[in-house]
Amino acid sequence: MIRRVFAALLVPALLAGCATGTGSSGGGDVTITFAWWGSDSRATITRKAVDLFEQRNPGVKVQTTFSAYAAYWEKLATQTAGGNAPDVITMDTRYLSEYGSRKVLLDLNEGAGKQVSLADISPELAKTGMLADKRYAVPWAQNASSLVYDTKAYEGIDLSKPMTWEQFRAAAEKVSAAGGFTKRGVTDFGMLDSALEIWLRQRGKQLYAPDGGLGFTDADLKAFWQLASGFRTSKAGTTAEVSASYNTAPEQSPLGKKLTAAEFAYDSVFPSFQKANGGTMGVAPYPSDDPSTTGQYRRPTMFLSVSARGKAQDTAAKLVDFLVNDPDAGKILGADRGLPPNLKVRQQLAAAATGTDKVIFDYEAAIEPKLGAAPPVPPKGAGAIQKLLQRTYEEVAFERLSVDDAVARFMSEAKKDLQ
Fold this sequence. Notes:
This protein is α+β, with helices and mostly antiparallel strands. It has helices at residues 2-16, 40-56, 69-81, 93-100, 123-126, 165-178, 193-201, 218-233, 240-243, 270-277, 313-325, 327-333, 343-352, 355-367, 382-397, 403-417, and strands spanning 22-24, 27-37, 60-67, 88-91, 130-131, 134-135, 138-143, 145-150, 262-266, 281-284, 299-306.
């Protein structure tokens, strides 16, 4: 839906230009807009970092907005189509091709974008913001896929050690039984493109092929959905009614609302889960049937991009450089979005990390030897695929479609979305 609205309204947007930024970096007052997704706690620290940027740059005003993930992309599509995209855009790998290929984002290798330094950013992580030979985004943080879990519920079960999918299902079922099956061991993961991607990588496959199509077959998706359904039917996983609320902020997720004891998520969201749940939480790797590979990789949590239509691109690029590379900004932001992309800042924070930040730093240090290379930037339509996967799997969970029929529907519609 986002892709269709975006495409239909983009032409007039390109003619209109962006009016969110006022003034210029050449002198006088400058106002730029900056938007991101996330929780209230993320908003608090991000605004604090922005305040510091304003203090160091008299005359600059940054207007900030944030929302939950799904709402963020719906709003951004409308803003961009209307010629009012934020000057600094928080970008996701699922949508980088969509926005970058339509010339919505500034090439950070040119003009104002050159202010954004990559000198201290991991080269492997930095290249994830490239599309063809243009740099449309710079990583704002690094994270990795993980299992966030309630340590009390899983007491006596060491999730940090290698565990097969069946072993984890049995452990999750045990947790469900201990709670009288009112609180399940793990949130159903069948609707998650992130879980599907890791499961595929464990089997030597990818979510997307180099030509922009799907990197897996009908049989692969059937096996994955059968796996997830097995968790649900054995009561190791959540019911369809509970799982339907998954794609929300951590505060409203099954784990955040204490309806489940574990959830597959990116480790960067761990602090928000910890705050929402209130219990003592831990982070563990994915289960894998092959102990030599977890399928996990160094993932750009999110990117920062500059609008190609903004009137204050110099100031916008300056804010991006500050948020990515400034040590004081790094201290404020911590590991809320994941590990800092700037390796010097990361090293400083790791040495002093406490609380939830320390959990994330320790987790990624432990899995570092098994992390693989990041996949190429997903093709246009990847955001639609995420929604399609969730929507179609819900039909399976509610028993309105068989797995075979759901797979057939998904594969047919996915091919259209990726055209």
